[in-house]
Amino acid sequence: MRQHTKPSKIRMKHDDLPAVIARKLAPSGSARAGSLLRALREACITMLSAIATLLITMLIAPGIGAGVLAVVLCISLSRSHLDRDRRGRIEAAIALPLVGLVAVGIGSLLQHSRWLGAVVFVAGMFVSIWLRRFGPMAGRAGSLIALPFVVLLTTPYIPAAPGGAIPALIAPIVVALLALLWVSSLHALAERIGFLPTRPVRENAPPAPRGESLLRPIASTRMAIQMAVALTVSFIVGYVWFADHWAWIVLTAFIVSSGNRGRLDVVYKSVLRVLGAAAGTFLALALSNNFGSHDTTTVVLILVAVFLGLWLRPLGYAWWALFVTLALALLQGFVGASTASILGLRMEEILIGAVIGVAASWFVLPVRSSAVLRRRIADALACLSDALDPANPLRAPELFIAALDAVEQLAPAFRASRLLTKHFRRLQPADWVDALLACRDPAIALIEKKATPVGARRAVGAARKSLREPTEILPALRDLYGSLTACAALDADPASTQPTQD
User: Fold this and answer.
1) Strands 497-500, 2-5: pairing kind
2) Residue 260 lies in domain
3) In sequence order, what are the beta bridge partners of 3?
4) 117 and 179 in one domain?
5) Residue 450 region by backbone torsions, left for phi larger than 0, else alpha for psi between -120 and 50, else beta
6) Cα dihedral across residues 122, 123, 125, 129: positive or negative
7) What angle do CA 362, 363, 367 make, to 5 degrees?
8) In this structure, what DSSP letter does residue 490 have?
9) Main-chain dihedrals φ then ψ at residue 138, nearest 5 degrees
10) Could you tell me if 341 and 415 lie in one domain?
11) Of 367, 382, 403, which closes a domain?
12) What is the rounded average pLDDT of the residues 135-159?
């Protein structure tokens, strides 16, 4: 007597898979509400940290510049998650004071020796991205190097106000350490009481070395060159034609080019940046007309805008662009600039910066978004293969989930492209993303039960091989979803396996 299964109970027709996957990925109200709730909690802790740091900063180093630096450092540290483990806190304790000093120093350099400051800025950003080629540790160092330049773009250079309790030279160091103290303490407290989930510390293996040539450098080098070109052009255009308002061009070119995931991603972000910035600018104009230039009211509005941007960012980058632009536009009132008087000029600069960023990514050693997507799908399938390997004693879903999250980061741009090109383009990489993301639940169910079904492992292998030919990727991923679903159903329902006699 042998055990046979009745596949009719668990298998589905191949033609039904697209509809099943579409239903599975359709955003439910509960899922969206859960995502917004998590983002709301994170935004609350970040803003509490920023407000606490800001209040103490105003007592010991009064002045707009120090206050803005305090808020920006809290936001940057919260998003970096360096405060979540001992090693990260040590790195942050060393790096953040340097970040504050470098931001103030380069800001002063850009104020008094513009072209030299621009050269230092471009070189620093190039190195921070180029270091990613040497693995996760170097990439983390690159992120720390980039932080003062990011702070500088979002923090206007405002000289320290006289009369502070501490010397102006060490004020950035004290502000940085205060930011680290409050962010670390409040995040630790939130995790301890269950307000925020505990983030497991993962050590990622270094990427496998890939071939590089002078004519076709690896992706990180190409992205570093693209960023350098975009920033160089934006500085030149800003300095020559826009005098004192050059920062908006550079900021937009930087935002559009940062985190470059290929040409399509850059175009998508540039559109969202322009739309969000336009809405934010007009909203700032309306608020300034209604509330005037009262300092206390403006500070409250800026903090509310930052909070809303942090909270609503999971819904789309346009929300973040809208509220950050609103906050920066309101901040102009502290440095004597009228929102109404520079409205048209600001929109013109944002458009120019977006065009520069897109042009650099499109024509300077371009990175194809589909190639980035295939690489991330390959990484996710490799993690899934390891998690289903019976020879692997440490089978866990965390690495697979992280790899899926990396794939999901690319989804919005590809889905927008599919919406615009579905009538005349048959091959849609967005379908690859949907098919792979649909595998999340059945794959995790198998991994958590330590199951290693042969059929699922074969389907993973077939999906990995299909990445060599784009036309074969979607059928292979759909087959993988069907196999994982069938195996998970068998494992969950023992009654589906019934004894029969030969």
Assistant:
1) antiparallel
2) 237-367
3) 499
4) yes
5) left
6) positive
7) 55
8) H
9) -65, -35
10) no
11) 367
12) 67
If DSSP codes are grouped into helix, strand and coil, which group holds residue 170?
coil
What pLDDT does 347 receive?
82
Residue 11 pLDDT: 47
Q: Which residues pair with 499 in a beta bridge?
A: 3
User: Does residue 229 belong to any structural domain of this protein?
Assistant: no
DSSP structural state of residue 168: T
Q: Which of 149-158, 225-234, 360-369, 411-420 has the lowest mean pLDDT?
A: 149-158
Residues 316, 188 share a domain: no
The Cα 137–Cα 353 span in angstroms is 31
Number of separate domains in the chain: 3
Is 502 inside any structural domain? Answer: no
Question: Quick one: 346 and 446 in the same domain?
Answer: no
Query: What does the pLDDT read at residue 103?
Result: 73
C-beta of residue 475 within 8 angstroms of C-beta of residue 466: yes
Interatomic CA distance for residues 348 and 345, integer angstroms: 5
| Helices 171-192 and 64-80, axial angle in degrees (round to 10) | 40
Residues 362 and 450 in one domain: no
Q: Is the pLDDT confidence value at 216 over 90?
A: no
Q: What pLDDT is attached to residue 9?
A: 44
For residue 205, the model assigns a pLDDT of 44
Residues 459/478, Cβ–Cβ less than 8 Å: no
Residues 388 and 459: their CA atoms lie apart, in Å, by 11
- Report the alpha-carbon distance of residue 337 to residue 100 in Å, rounded: 25
Instruction: Indicate whether 58 belongs to any domain.
Output: yes
Residue 467 near residue 408, CB atoms below 8 Å = no
Q: Is 292 left (phi over 0), alpha (psi -120 to 50) or beta?
A: left
Range name among 36-45, 183-192, 273-282, 328-337 with the lowest pLDDT average = 328-337
Token digits of residue 384: 């899934």
Mean pLDDT of the 471-499 span: 78
H-assigned helices in 364-466: 369-387, 398-408, 411-421, 429-437, 440-448, 454-466
Domain boundary among 316, 337, 367: 367
Is pLDDT at 380 greater than 90 in this prediction? Answer: yes
Radius of gyration of the chain (CA): 25
pLDDT in tens, 61-94: 887 778 888 888 888 778 777 666 677 777 777 7
